[in-house]
Amino acid sequence: IQIESEFNELNISDSNSNGNHENCYKPNDGKLWCKECVPRYMIEGWTSGNNGIDEFIKDTIYDAKIGYDDYDDDDDDNDDSDGDDYPIFLEWVPFDKFEDIKQIGEGGFSKVYSAIWIDGKAKYIKQNDGSWKKKEPEPKKIALKKLNESQNISADYLNEIKIFWNFYLNETSDVYLKFYGITKDTKTKEFMMIIELANQGNLRSVLSNDFNNIFWNEKLSILSNMIFDLKGLHKLGYFHKDLHSGNVLQDNEHNEHSYISDFGLSRPSNEPRSYDKIYGVLPYIAPEVLNGEPYTLSSDIYSFGVIMTELSSGKPPFHNRKHDISLALEICNGIRPEFGKGTPEIYK
């Protein structure tokens, strides 16, 4: 408690305001702190039980950068902060820090829950005098993504989670799905990612439940959000590899928005990546991938095009057919999902 209290009063200077780290006086390298001066309580006294995950979380703390707190709309009027800038890093969060946990979705390799994070994301707000002050804990509703069979998570799969983090870290804004930390189910010992909750669920469920009330301007907005996310991912040199309407999340808590999720995570978490196996939802997989070629930027764009047909018709691609080897062969030979009736020609 004493260490945390001392940290709350630390004066960590902006990278442009001083030539040295505030707490160890080493030359400023653009980071908030270094391994010598990072607050010790943040990296000591806890473990996930997995060395790889521990080191990953600690690395995000060592490399913390400044972001903008766009999800906190109820700032304390007595806070003399100069704006809601805050350090971005992942947290290890004990499972007993969550309550009201409810399953809201399930895929082939994961389950998704909504929950209340009792303390909420740790936030340190910059004051007018340049110091940093920790805000009081504030409960937050989030999503927990349980990675099935992740008790012995593979190094390859952990690298995919790092891609998710690097994407968020490099492209942080209000149009990217936030990644807050990692926890572990105390009963099953499976790891869970703590991420932003998209309150409308995925695009497939939205289309199933409310297609007739989604107008073309809204459809174009969804596609615009998606292509923005894809552009950011591709700019970092990554491909999604499993883009479909179940991985496009919808949120309208603050304003209507769509997010792409699950970059490369749709495969078993306890197995190394196999380059001989194809994971994904068949109608969205590009024909060249079905033919054994590697994933590319174009493979993601093909999946994006399939989602365009789904937005126009309201129905999943090839919904009236079995997803089997016969369909895979026909996709390789040129069959494609159809656009819905009344689709503008310019859209096709």
UniProtKB/TrEMBL annotation:
<feature type="domain" description="Protein kinase">
    <location>
        <begin position="98"/>
        <end position="348"/>
    </location>
</feature>
<protein>
    <recommendedName>
        <fullName>Protein kinase domain-containing protein</fullName>
    </recommendedName>
</protein>
<dbReference type="Pfam" id="PF00069">
    <property type="entry name" value="Pkinase"/>
</dbReference>
<dbReference type="GO" id="GO:0007165">
    <property type="term" value="P:signal transduction"/>
</dbReference>
<dbReference type="InterPro" id="IPR000719">
    <property type="entry name" value="Prot_kinase_dom"/>
</dbReference>
<dbReference type="GO" id="GO:0004672">
    <property type="term" value="F:protein kinase activity"/>
</dbReference>
<dbReference type="GO" id="GO:0005737">
    <property type="term" value="C:cytoplasm"/>
</dbReference>
<dbReference type="InterPro" id="IPR050167">
    <property type="entry name" value="Ser_Thr_protein_kinase"/>
</dbReference>
<dbReference type="GO" id="GO:0005524">
    <property type="term" value="F:ATP binding"/>
</dbReference>
<dbReference type="InterPro" id="IPR011009">
    <property type="entry name" value="Kinase-like_dom_sf"/>
</dbReference>
